[in-house]
């Protein structure tokens, strides 16, 4: 029995310890429950605040969405109006471009023709102006050269007259001639028609200006001395345009002197003079040596002169 009692006692003691343990655990659970209740209350408070915040945020989001929808609607309206205006402008621009394209095509067709017409007109005007300038320049040059040739001719006549007078005075002083009947042989002849291609033979000065004694033949261009004496001959040759021409004064088929008009520029003039002792019947003329073409005018520029000095 004692053993049983001891076992029962030990069992009771062990049960008490377990009960005490359970009490302790129960107390811990109560404390835990209280803590949980406190935390739950706090969480409920926090949850309420969070709910309020979420509600406020939701309301704000709804207002924002409403504003966005309003803005989008207004933007869509404005965009539609702008697009309509742009479509109208595009139509107008397309119409203008079509008109411009047609105008460009017309210009493409007419511009070359107009350019060609204007070019022809300007070319014609420039040609006329150039021709007029060249003609006036040539006329001025011809006039100047004619004056120079005339001056030279006048000087030549003056020199011949002085020589003749000197010869006449000397012969009269020496009693070699009869002062009452001096013999005069002198001529000047020229050509009045230019020949651009003349390049051979005798140069025939067919226009007689003076022919005292009749020794010069205008049909052949040959001077035939009617008497023995000393004679002076002078030739002037003007080249045609920019040609080069040279001629010789010939005595009885023998070239004696040469006149050269070199074509470095337009209408150059060449001159030369020769003094011959001629017997009765000797002949003098002018012939081509080289080159071609001579120029003259109605008042001779190209000329041939001769006269006896003794």
From TrEMBL:
Q: Where in the cell is it found?
A: Secreted
PROSITE patterns under this entry?
A: C1Q (PS50871)
Recorded hits in Gene3D superfamilies, A to Z, give: 2.60.120.40
Q: Which Pfam families match?
A: C1q
Entry keywords, A to Z? Coiled coil, Secreted
| Entries under InterPro entries matching the protein | C1q_dom, Collagen/C1q_domain, Tumour_necrosis_fac-like_dom
Q: Return the protein name.
A: C1q domain-containing protein
The organism's taxonomic lineage, starting at the top: Eukaryota, Metazoa, Spiralia, Lophotrochozoa, Mollusca
């Amino acid at each position: 029995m004692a053993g049983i009692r001891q076992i029962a006692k030990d069992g009771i003691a062990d049960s008490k310890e377990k009960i005490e343990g359970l009490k302790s655990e129960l107390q811990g659970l109560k404390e835990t429950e209280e803590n949980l209740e406190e935390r739950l209350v706090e969480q409920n408070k926090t949850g309420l605040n969070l709910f309020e915040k979420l509600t406020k945020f939701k309301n704000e989001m709804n207002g924002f969405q409403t504003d966005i929808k309003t803005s989008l609607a207004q933007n869509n309206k404005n965009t539609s109006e702008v697009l309509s205006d742009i479509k109208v402008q595009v139509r107008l621009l397309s119409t203008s471009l079509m008109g411009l394209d047609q105008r460009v095509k017309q210009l493409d067709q007419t511009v070359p023709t107009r350019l060609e017409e204007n070019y022809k007109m300007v070319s014609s005007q420039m040609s006329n102006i150039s021709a007029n300038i060249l003609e006036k320049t040539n006329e001025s040059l011809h006039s100047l050269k004619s004056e120079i040739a005339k001056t030279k001719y006048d000087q030549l006549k003056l020199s011949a007259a002085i020589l003749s007078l000197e010869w006449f005075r000397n012969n009269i002083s020496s009693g070699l001639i009869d002062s009452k009947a001096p013999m005069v042989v002198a001529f000047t002849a020229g050509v009045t028609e230019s020949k651009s291609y003349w390049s051979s033979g005798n140069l025939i000065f067919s226009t007689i200006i003076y022919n005292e004694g009749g020794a010069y033949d205008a049909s052949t261009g040959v001077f035939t001395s009617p008497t023995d004496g000393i004679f002076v001959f002078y030739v002037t040759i003007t080249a045609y345009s920019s040609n080069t021409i040279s001629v010789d004064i010939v005595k009885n088929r023998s070239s004696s002197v040469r006149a050269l008009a070199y074509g470095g520029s337009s209408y150059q003039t060449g001159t030369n003079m020769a003094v011959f002792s001629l017997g009765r019947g000797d002949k003098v003329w002018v012939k081509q040596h080289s080159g071609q073409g001579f120029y003259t005018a109605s008042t001779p520029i190209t000329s041939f002169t001769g006269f006896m000095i003794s």
